[in-house]
Design goal:
The protein is an alpha/beta fold and 312 residues long. The chain has helices at 2-16, 72-79, 109-122, 135-146, 172-175, 178-189, 191-202, 211-218, 226-236, 266-275, 291-294, 296-310; strands at 37-41, 44-52, 57-61, 83-87, 128-133, 151-157, 253-258, 279-284. The chain has a single domain (34-310), classed as Rossmann fold, CATH 3.40.50.1820. Mean pLDDT is 90; it is low at 4-9.
Amino acid sequence: MIVLALLLIPLAGPFLIPVPPLDGLLPPQALADPDSQFIQLNGLDVHVKTLGQGEPVFVLLHGFGASLYSWQAVIEPLSQSGTVIAYDRPAFGLTERPLTWEGQNPYGSPAQVDLLIALLDHFGVEQAVLVGNSAGGTVAMQAAIQHPERVAALILVDPAVYTSRSTPEWIMPVLHTPQARRLGLLAVRSIQTRGPKLLNLAWDDPTQIPPESIEQYQKPLQVENWDRALWEFTLAARPADLEDRLDQLTLPTLVITGDNDQIVPTADSIRLAGELPSAQLVVIQNAGHVPHEERPQEFLDAISAFLSTIDR
């Protein structure tokens, strides 16, 4: 009886833990801004904002737990130099969060790269400057390796190359069980309370975070199925192994980091700039993991100086 009880605890225990439904969740379109667009790409309704015209074309890829709002302070200034396209990656922002699909998992890295290329195709962009923050930087790098002809340059903002983590293969069968999926929902829902703490960690001086930024970071938590999609995203994570492919990134690259990044250590970005074949490095003072939010003018100045060198 004791042995049977010990076997039943991990099997039945998770089903005894209450997982109440989340109230008041809305379709993404109900939370959209007047300048929001929703376009169909690879079977997904993708939330996009565009500004400006002509070349260069900047495509902005946000990091984990963020959305296209993360670029709010730099979209308009960048649009003075060309076209800016910002979008919410699957599992974040206001982009559709499917729970079932046929074929490729929309939350996995291969689908993320394919979605980026589909975005370029939709807007008729032959080549773009990819600007990626944190995990968005790794997506940009993967796209540049797989489709070098579509990428004019890379701007990597505190990219999560050496610190990226994925779910170990050995535990995947366990995480796909009904018990683990139930507990997984509770785990990802903790971002409702942990989110503000993570945002504070992303800034050098969290006392300067505007109240509207906190509201905008919490906004996607009002979207239907946000918790289930975030768990699917977690299950789909796989190693990018970018460390072993840096020599393939020979295109012009700018690495930008804050001098006090507590999420992706500043030293990692400095190391990356040294290991990439054609990279420039800018360290922005008094900035953390999101220098484009915390020090937008210094961020824009770094991009302007970088573009002036590759336009020669």
